Structure formats: structure tokens, C-alpha cells
Amino acid sequence: MIIRHAVKEILNIPDDTPTNMLYSSTSVKGMSLIRAEWEAYIQHIIAVHCLKRTNNSIVSKVRDLDSEITTLLKKLNLPEDFLTNQMENSKKKKPSESLRNELRKREFEGWKNLRSKGKGVELFEGCPTINRKLFDKIGLTTSEWTTYFKMTGSVTAVRVNHGRNTGTNRCRIPSCDEIETIGHVLGACRQGELLRHNRHNNIRKIIANALRNRGWKVIE
Which of 72, 126, 140, 214 could be 145's S-S partner, Cβ–Cβ 3.0 to 4.6 Å? Predict the structure, then answer.
């Protein structure tokens, strides 16, 4: 809990940011945060796994290593044969990596099932490479990067999000009566029309220059 609250405070994101998002993989717009509750068992499993590989007869008489691993996997709600299957299917992966990946997948499933903040989350699986680059803050200012996490967790200050309205979910701009969603604010609201035009022109210029560099004649 201390780590979670510290990360939220450092990033300046709201306290109601989904916990599942923090522990999901960066490939699905999560943060891949280490969860101490997992690590206690994962590190124990790795230690036992290393002892088992030594094939030391004295150790095997003193401790029931297989039973110990089984008990630890149950603590993580994983099947008894999880590590065996993982080692057979992917010999390059370390046991700790396989365990964390599986637990992060489970967190992502929990994130998708959230009633309000889980809407559309399943679509995040479509662009893993871009998601990882966004997590690395490439091309984003600190403010934009923080806003990215708020948008991903559905905790931005738009009225459609839980706890962000004053009795209505309609746009706060008087001349606009649409529902105030992120899509509306970024793509339709009159208040941001000039910003959208400017964004469009900048993107058009980037594409045009790329084509000119290849020898094409371009008209903007």
C-alpha cells in the first residue's frame, strides 16, 4: 500500500486510479509495478527452485522441496504444475519472469472487468509496442505523460467519470450540450477546435515533409 500511494503521489494521479492498472504489464498500458505481496512468495519459490536444481541429497532429506513449491503456488492461486509447464514451453524464461507475467495477466483481467474504469480496456492489447514506448515517456512532456496515465485509468476530470461531475454529465461549456467524455473533449467540443486544427496541421506537415524527402511533389 505504501508503494502504491507513493507512486500515485509522485505521478500526481488520483487515488482512485485502478489498482489493477498499476500491476498490469506495460504492453497493455499498465505500469508493471512490483507488488510486494507477490514478491514474498516469488522470491521464496526461486530460492527453493535453486535448491532443487543442486540435487543435494542432504537438502532433499531435510526439506520437501516439491511440497514447498506447491504450497507457495497455492498462495499465489496458481496451479501446482505451473512452473513445470512454463519450463517445458519456454526454456529461456526465468521462473520469476514467468510467475510475474502470469500474475500481471491476471491483474489485467481484473482491470477489464471493472464496471466503470474497465470499459474499453480490452482494446489495449492491440498495440503492445506503442504502449511500451508511451510508458518510456518518449516524445512526451511530464504533464502529457501524467495525463496519459489519467486517461488510461479513466480518472481524468471529465464529467462522465465517476466522482467528477456536479449532478450532470453534460459538457461544462455553455454552448455545448453533449456528454462530457474524453472523446468529446479531444475530438468534438467547440472549445478545443483551434487546438485540434493546429494538431491536424502539424501532423499534415510531418507527413508532407516525409513525402518530400522521398522526392514526391506535395500540396498541403
Answer: 140
70 residue type, one letter:
T
Alpha-carbon distance of 23 to 111, in angstroms, equals 10
As a whole number of angstroms, the distance between CA 13 and CA 145 comes to 11
Alpha carbon distances (Å) from 210 to 59, 204, 213, 214: 65, 10, 5, 7
| 129 CA to centre of own chain | 12
Q: Which of 175, 199, 177, 201 is nearest to 186 (CA)?
A: 199
CA 138 to CA 168: how far, in whole Å?
Answer: 37
Cα first-last separation, the chain: 53
Task: Report pLDDT digits (tens) over 108-141.
Answer: 999 999 998 999 999 999 999 999 999 999 889 9
Closest C-alpha among 119, 126, 155 to residue 22 = 155
Helix count (H) and strand count (E) of the chain?
A: 11, 0
- Tallying the residues shown for the chain, one arrives at 220
